[in-house]
Design a protein that fits this description.
- Helices cover 69% and strands 0% of the residues.
- It contains 6 helices and no strands.
- The chain is flat, with a radius of gyration of 27 Å.
- The two termini are 49 Å apart.
């Protein structure tokens, strides 16, 4: 692009390419940190970077020459705000989960002994029953949509059209 595009706040070819490479490079660096075998803290940083890189991928459509820099900055701020809000909700949810469900049972009480001897949630018949019902409903919906599509094709229903030629 010419210099006048840079003067009005639009991205130049070079800056658009740098933005694109930075977003893609962030994802590659995150993957390298996740799959390194040396330090757990680097893995943790990589996990955070994967989420940030996934959100930053929303900037790739804006990495076009001539795109106003203001639009790119605004989109980056919305992405950062979304990340912070989701992080806060996640922290609150983890806290509430720990507060409500992770109190250690007291083995000296009857309820505590019952909790310690309880089956894990994934071994309960109720869990498997609900999962089976969900799969059966999904299959029934898929079969119903196929059946209704086939029956409407075979029934010869008159379909109104707005085309002049038909």
């Amino acid at each position: 692009m010419s210099r006048h595009h840079q003067g009005n706040g639009g991205l130049s070819h070079a800056s658009a390419r740098r933005l694109e490479y930075a977003v893609i490079g962030l994802g590659v660096a995150a993957l390298l940190l996740i799959f390194q075998p040396f330090d757990i803290s680097l893995f943790t940083a990589g996990g955070v970077m994967v989420v940030v890189a996934a959100l930053a991928n929303n900037l790739l459509p804006l990495a076009q020459p001539g795109m106003p820099k203001r639009s790119v900055v605004k989109a980056a701020m919305i992405i950062a705000m979304t990340f912070c809000a989701v992080l806060l909700v996640s922290i609150l949810a983890a806290y509430l989960y720990g507060l409500l469900f992770l109190n250690p049972p007291d083995p000296t009480t009857l309820a505590g002994r019952a909790q310690l001897n309880a089956k894990p949630w994934y071994l309960h018949g109720f869990t498997w029953t609900v999962a089976t019902i969900a799969c059966a409903l999904a299959a029934a919906l898929a079969l119903h949509s196929r059946w209704s599509a086939r029956s409407s094709d075979r029934s010869g229903e008159y379909r109104r059209t707005t085309s002049l030629g038909e």
